[in-house]
Amino acid sequence: MTMRIVDIQTFRRDFKLANPSVVAYESLDIAPNVIVRVTTEDGRVGWGAAAPDRHVTGETVEGVERTIDEKLKPVLLGLDASRIEMIWARMVEAAPAEPTAVAGVDIALYDLLGQAANLPLCRLLGHARDEIVTSVTLSIEETGASVERALDFKSRGFRALKIKCGIDPDEDVARVRAVRAAVGDEMRISLDANQGYEARQTLRVIEALCDCRIAFVEQPVAAGDIEAMREVCARSPVPVMADESVLGASDVLTTPAPLVNLKLMKTGGITGALKANSVAEARGIGVMVGCMDESRISMAAAAHLALALHNVVYADLDGHLDVIEDVASGGLAIVDGMVRVGNAVGLGAICTPA
After folding, report:
1. From 172, 231, 243, 244, active-site residue
2. Is 263 a catalytic residue?
3. Does 266 participate in catalysis according to the annotation?
4. Which residue of the set 263, 275, 293, 294 is catalytic?
5. Does the 123-351 domain belong in CATH 3.10.180.10?
6. What pLDDT is attached to residue 21?
7. What is the pTM of this model?
8. pLDDT for position 22
9. Distance linking the first and last C-alpha atoms of the chain
């Protein structure tokens, strides 16, 4: 059955965050998102969302909205929404350096596909598992506040912490050690420097935390410094994960890291993530499905992807937890630190953007 696209609409939403997001390169208390609604001739509506980060892809919320309205919509009107591979290629051709804009539309198309098949999206994509552990993030803040927040997360059943760092290595070491002492040995802890360290600093921090059971360290050095990343990967006793240095499949092909963080906003949505994951799997690279600060719409898409693919070994799917007054409900649930998606068709997210 053909699902001809008859309309694509965008709605900008600047979500307030319950807790500021503080990383090595910025501090945010607002998360701008673009909500995307794709309508087909048979009356179906698919929802997508785009959450740009200019430090990662160079996109802004104004640019994403303009790209979807002016570049993508004219190309896609009249096409069959189920022909996602063809549509994705056309979107990338129209906006080759704007993966977040492409992601917003691509997610909506998969929502439509799941609805048409009358299945949750994860079942269409492979359904490797029913649930997965998600990490929950500790932003950069003073040690006492980090410990208090970590204990709160533990009391709520979370099993994995991602600790942001990258500004002051000595303070980072002290904070991580304090958090580990507070939460005990059972919680998984990973570090994310968001490009804040040099290679030598990274190795010094890892050495200082050798008894803290760090699962992996994410993007410790500048995204463009491939030699520094190669040095850290070769010398670190802790696995290294590439994030900002890996946007899509071509970057996965060349990264020296044994782990990569695939975010739908970097890869151009689910279609691009599937391509990047295939390259990672062929190279023996483990994948984490990650996120920005996002609406439940795109977070649901990421959750379905994480549950669908066997090569996904980690998940970081907490991007909606601090969003105040989201436009969507449902889509995914986190129970005792485990992400699940339920049996609703498509993304399973109920959206009311008005």
Report:
1. 243
2. yes
3. no
4. 263
5. no
6. 87
7. 0.97
8. 81
9. 30
